[in-house]
Amino acid sequence: MNIKQSIKQNKLEPLFTQAIFGIEKESQRILSDGTITSTNHPACFGNRNFHPYIQTDFAETQMEIVTPPLDKVEKVMNWLAAIHDVSLRTMPDDEYLLPTSSPLFMPHEDDIQVAKLDNEADVAYREYLVDVYGKRKQMVSGIHYNFEFQPKFVHALYDNEQADVSFKDFQSKLYLKLAHNFFRYQWILTYLLGASIEAKPEFFKNEERPDDIPAGLIRSIRSSKYGYVNNDDVKVSFESMEAYVDTIEKMVAEDKLIEEKEFYSTVRFRGGKNAREILKNGISYLEFRLLDLNPFAEFGIAEEDMRFIHQFLMYLIWIDEDATEAELEIGKEMNFATSFENPLEHSSYELEGKAILNGVSDMLKQLNLSDDIVQEKLKAFDNPELTLAGQLALIYNQGNYIEWTIKTAISNKEAALERPYALRGFESMELSTQILIYDAIQKGLHIEVLDTEDQFLSLKYKDHLEYVKNGNMTSLDTYISSLVMANKVVTKKILAKNGFIVPDSMEYHNAEEAFRDYGLFNNKRFVVKPKSTNYGLGISIFKEGASEENYRKAIEIAFEEDSAVLVEDFVPGTEYRFFVAGNETKAVLLRIPANVVGDGTHTIEALVNMKNEDPLRGKNHRTPLTLIELGKIEQLALAEQGYVMTDVPSEGTTVYLRDNSNISTGGDSIDMTEEMHETYKEIAVGIAKAMGATFSGVDMMIPDYTKPATEAEPGYGVIEANFNPAMMMHIYPHEGKGQRLTLDVLDLLFPEMAVKGDQS
Amino acid sequence: MNIKQSIKQNKLEPLFTQAIFGIEKESQRILSDGTITSTNHPACFGNRNFHPYIQTDFAETQMEIVTPPLDKVEKVMNWLAAIHDVSLRTMPDDEYLLPTSSPLFMPHEDDIQVAKLDNEADVAYREYLVDVYGKRKQMVSGIHYNFEFQPKFVHALYDNEQADVSFKDFQSKLYLKLAHNFFRYQWILTYLLGASIEAKPEFFKNEERPDDIPAGLIRSIRSSKYGYVNNDDVKVSFESMEAYVDTIEKMVAEDKLIEEKEFYSTVRFRGGKNAREILKNGISYLEFRLLDLNPFAEFGIAEEDMRFIHQFLMYLIWIDEDATEAELEIGKEMNFATSFENPLEHSSYELEGKAILNGVSDMLKQLNLSDDIVQEKLKAFDNPELTLAGQLALIYNQGNYIEWTIKTAISNKEAALERPYALRGFESMELSTQILIYDAIQKGLHIEVLDTEDQFLSLKYKDHLEYVKNGNMTSLDTYISSLVMANKVVTKKILAKNGFIVPDSMEYHNAEEAFRDYGLFNNKRFVVKPKSTNYGLGISIFKEGASEENYRKAIEIAFEEDSAVLVEDFVPGTEYRFFVAGNETKAVLLRIPANVVGDGTHTIEALVNMKNEDPLRGKNHRTPLTLIELGKIEQLALAEQGYVMTDVPSEGTTVYLRDNSNISTGGDSIDMTEEMHETYKEIAVGIAKAMGATFSGVDMMIPDYTKPATEAEPGYGVIEANFNPAMMMHIYPHEGKGQRLTLDVLDLLFPEMAVKGDQS
């Protein structure tokens, strides 16, 4: 098949450049002295039986991070970042992830704990591996790069080829070609990206460094013939799928392999449980297994290398060549040889390497794509110190290797902890959604982002699928309950009917009608507000009644904002937000307007700047709290209290910079979950139930939260209920204990998982 | 208690003018010859055991229409209109409601069917009444006017009075005063509103007109001592609640009354099952029972009379006077005497009547309210022919009474049938909500309009309460399913995952990105559209591929409407709307663009005008179909087909006035529910299920609706699913059978009612 020609003739370039990627990355959990930890895989990660993202490889300490298949390299990098954030923040405080493939210090065989899995077959398989290969070799970690061409591309190729084979066979042939050429040229990746440069005696079974390994550093012990390879008597053909199936089954039948998955090849066919099933289904994608961890990349693989490998793979089917079995063997030998090279010396195959990379560059130009990355890689052929092994060798030769590696591990963990409320890779989404994804990754739910802008996720546990929008809009709420809460008048009618205390309220559709009812309010405490606005606009509060003139003015102001106006009893007390989830109030929050507390030394301006240094404060709803501004509104608020910005308030004096208590204008959130009297929490649950809501943010005015609510003295008034209550402010409050509401959401959505029971 | 003074001092005027009203209106079902029908109460009204709005009084033919308690006279009139619409449209075609209190032709005793109720006690009570009073007297119908002061008003009075009685006793006293003064002055209402002018022999038990009834016409036989009154030996005191309870219980104990409700008084205390319970609870409202049907008012009582009675009742507590037991007796006698007066003669108590009405007028002026209605009533004292009885007498004396009454009955029914899709009284709401209310009234659900503008209802059957917005937003749908449907991209992803055929689609966030992918589409049929707009704006359809220039233009146009643009496979076929409710596709609709069919004679303009005469066509979504316009867009559409408005299309030629098929721009709706192949209906149900939706409007493109959908040839493509699908166009289509989807909504919401099983 002349793929290049078919792509050009049929304008398949955009489809050809699309692909589906997935990364599996193993790494050892270490302590700050560089030794491998002895703790178990954290229980908080849920069960490895089903966890899609955080697994263990051979050893209990060898954490494996697995991304889902994704259609963009950026997405893979985002997922790697996110799973690393979850892993690193969940691990014990004194543990880090080793950034290199090889352990800095190889433990004694006896100290290596094989992964403690539930599944007996998995355990038995690992025990067999211990027998055959020893434990130490298995302690070396790497990256698996899963790759699938865009299925539409393969279909288009097939349609245009008019081949007389089935689509499945056609597809398998395409991937066979890719595998063949990969074996032939994989040495290029080992040259550029090999990064396990030590061949220490402890690595080998007999604790002796074999003689055929050159002295000093090498490019990659893991990709060498002493890496994770089968015995020489294991021979599997890649000529055709049929030949592959026949030979691998023969190896198992002859006990040369205990099972098919013991066949360690740098390329694996995927698309079924075993080879015969792949033969039936066709190869659906390939797994490339020869990559070492890139210690310079925070997540074990650099984005430009992911892209480079993609371009390299595209090139391997773009060319006419399809390597023969003999050429495959040559390629494998070239790879072994490359792995043994001195990292700071030129490649023995420099000319072939450059020719191939120039070919990749040429292809990219024909596809109107940038070849910048390939040009960088070409430079590494002239400058071996630019390869990963080369860079590591320079560090090693300076005697800093261990120190540098540990420092890197620590700084990677620090990066994950820097903004503990955010989830890297998903930072364009709302904070609540970021935290929900964090928890879902931790617990092992299958997550799909259906729409980033719309905060739309699907979450799945076994066969149980749930959709979630904005963190807590779910199937647990009915459509009508959200509509009830969205309508203040309906909310109040329903709550009043159900016996809850709501402010008495009149609704007007024109000012004249409202003017006439002045007598209803003149000597009461009341509030005039537009029916549907939510941002405090057009609201007048009369805490001691109002003159007719002021009443009329307030009505007119409110009608400027809406065509319907409410005149409502003023409810005394302090406003608290109750977050109800199901049958419980899970969090209670007091919000107070933006403020600073004087110290007798600093100006208000300085105090604000000091308060704003809190890493929880930021802008644009991407932090749990908001920076306090010093604009006109704040200066007006100061003026009302008799201050200017340059005043120095006395010690302990609270100065407010806002009248409103919104978190989005710099307000402080104070968790009151434990302090609030239980009776009010029960009332909040009842309010949510009356509206049929599972998740609701109930706002109540309460004069004294320590006094129980009784029938005779209810002690509260409901302001409103919110159908999309913010969770963030409860999770990371300014003061008090954070309440992990996202876990409550998951717990209610997936009761069968016992999400919160797993919490450690 | 000096109420007038308390109102003035405490500015209670706005509260004093508020009240809660309810009307019960009996009337006989008659045939077009004026005789009472012999059919049963229609089964379609559901069960009288619980029906809150449509009941039967004494006789099976005596329909009773009951409004809920409402806080505005307008609302009562709206409900009366609505229940009349439901009653008149549901009754057999040849039946009408008699607009007068007295039957035109009194049936033989044997032909009168007592109401066929399920409840044994109800039946026994009616049998007892037959024994004691005979059947005929009970065939006379009237209006009960239920009245409650605004509870806040009574509380405010109580708070200001600082009386040393409990609030309940205070409230009872207030209503006792109202009752006393009502008895004293009720004759005024009989004078003005009495309207049962015949005292025919058939009315009396012995078929002899008693001698003490004056010859000729009278004001009200129903309010006379031959009306529905107890024997003379029934004596009940109204002096206090205690006296009332003692005496009425004594009457029952002495077998002078079979039970308390046999006590026929023009005023009844309400607030408990029996007198003793009312004593305990306090009187909560009064029922005034002396009104005849007003045959000049479409619904038995005129709005101005409802208002007049309200003003009259206000006056009865405004005045200091509290009639004594002796005065009560005088009042009753004056009422009997008034009822026997000649309708065209002046009242014997003209002076007192005018004095009272002038008092009402004076009160209204002090309250800054209009006294227009009272002034009209005052005129009726100078001109007896202006009273209801006077007007009727004029008709009677012209010999047209029977004819006029029948004509009125027929024209009232015609008025109810004029706009069969709309529900009078609720016409400011959306049509779907109007029809849902219609069905809910018919079936006997308790309905409360929680928010008119927001189309928010509560519906209740026994203890089962449901909220409904916009006709089909309910608790049966989850919040997330509506959000899934609201997001086209998410919808498509979910449907594709579930194996449904959706057009392949790419989403772009900037034009450059989209331009690059031209190759993906160039030789395919495709559509370019903004991600979120719904109104056809910015959409380009390429049915035969597109040049790169046109592709780029289309992308740019779409980006003018939205920040995200979809490029989607064009799906061939005709678009159908499937309305899914639960496990069934309940309706299928084909929508075709506004069009006319030529007849070889008329111009396009004339054809449009002729088509627009269909009463189903109107404006502003208040009719099932929309008027076809003849504006710029229509002229452009004509020009595309080579027409101008003055052209005369040949017979049978269809000329389109629009490219789009929206009903809101004059499109035709054609019901295809029966024609559509069952397989597509099942697919629509599956689509709704995949999104977790109970109610969904699924839009599918289908090339051939007669051919079954098969796995090999699906024969459809899903365009989108709507979470608030219009029901109206299915219920009243332009062509084909209407599908009563509102009944399906009720059926799913209240399965225990078997709503559709009751359908007749």
TrEMBL record, chains A, B:
Region (Glutamate--cysteine ligase): 1-339
Cofactor(s) essential for the protein: Mn(2+); Mg(2+)
Cellular component terms per the entry's GO annotation: cytosol
Record flagged with keyword S-adenosyl-L-methionine: no
Known catalytic reactions: L-cysteine + L-glutamate + ATP = gamma-L-glutamyl-L-cysteine + ADP + phosphate + H(+); gamma-L-glutamyl-L-cysteine + glycine + ATP = glutathione + ADP + phosphate + H(+)
Keywords from the named record: ATP-binding, Glutathione biosynthesis, Ligase, Magnesium, Manganese, Metal-binding, Multifunctional enzyme, Nucleotide-binding
Residues in coiled coil: none
Pathway terms, separated by semicolons: Sulfur metabolism; glutathione biosynthesis; glutathione from L-cysteine and L-glutamate: step 1/2; Sulfur metabolism; glutathione biosynthesis; glutathione from L-cysteine and L-glutamate: step 2/2
UniProt-listed Enzyme Commission number(s): 6.3.2.2, 6.3.2.3
Function description: Synthesizes glutathione from L-glutamate and L-cysteine via gamma-L-glutamyl-L-cysteine.
NCBIfam families: glu_cys_lig_rel, PRK02471.1
Stated family: In the N-terminal section; belongs to the glutamate--cysteine ligase type 1 family. Type 2 subfamily.
Protein name: Glutathione biosynthesis bifunctional protein GshAB
Species this chain originates from: Jeotgalibaca porci
Gene for this chain: gshAB
